[in-house]
Amino acid sequence: MLSSPSGGGKTTIYRAILERHPEYKYSVSATTRPRRGEEQNGIDYFFLSDEEFLEKIDSGEFVEWAFVHGYRYGTLKSTVKKALSEGDVLLFDLDVQGADAMKKTFPDEVVNIFILPPSREELRKRLTARKTDQPDVINLRLRNAEGEVKKAINYDYIVINDDLNTAINQVDSIVTAELCRPQMQLPILGWGLK
Q1: Checking CA distances to 119, which of 31, 138, 164, 187 falls within 20 to 30 Å?
Q2: H/E/C letters for each residue in the chain?
Q3: Which residues form the domain of 45?
Q4: Band (170; pLDDT cuts 50, 70, 90)
Q5: Which tens digits make up the pLDDT trace of 19-59?
Q6: Is residue 37 situated within a structural domain?
Q7: What is the distance between the alpha carbons of residues 138 and 58, in angstroms, rounded to a whole number?
Q8: Which residues of 119-144 are buried (b: 16+ CB within 10 A; e: fewer)?
């Protein structure tokens, strides 16, 4: 599971990992935020109205959900249960609140990786260069980043995204190493754990 402040590079990194490993899957989150650019429903996010999102909360359809940067984001239980039952490697792009909830719900299955921009100044440059947000939204994201970075200490790994290729290689190596843990390999091979 990847988390970072907005503009930290998590989306670029998980897309690169999926290109390298087409057998991996991406967990498509639900959100109430508007689409950006060429984003597609069901591929980038499940774009829901506030009413639809609230209905899903009320019916218990989310593993986790949070209100972040003025919008709701959540992970559908059906997505996670399907991946677990099929033994898929499922990559998540979650904020720190969502990552915390997922780790609490699935402590043995979830590996949290925090993507850290090299500096506040670099993060501002990246957010500005995206040209997707107004200055007031960029400032909100930078303020929120302060609290998000403080939570990075609770993650399993931190990758500093100073050089994109290095960061991609590090995340790829972490996933590969985690897949070699006994609790991952022994059941696949039919040996069990006990």
Answers
A1: 31
A2: CEECCCCCCHHHHHHHHHHHCCCCEECCCEECCCCCCCCCECCCEEECCHHHHHHHHHCCCEEEEEEECCEEEEEEHHHHHHHHHHCCCEECECCHHHHHHHHHHCCCCCCCEEEECCCHHHHHHHHHHHCCCCHHHHHHHHHHHHHHHHHHHHCCEEEECCCHHHHHHHHHHHHHHHHCCHHHHHHHCCCCCC
A3: 2-188
A4: very high
A5: 999 999 999 999 999 998 899 999 889 999 999 999 999 99
A6: yes
A7: 32
A8: eeeebbebbeeeeebeeeebeebbeb
- Amino acid identity of residue 7, one-letter, is G
**Total number of domains in the chain:** 1
CA distance 124 to 141: 9
On whether residue 193 sits in a domain, the answer given is: no
- Return the CATH number at 170: 3.40.50.300
In-domain check, residue 194: no
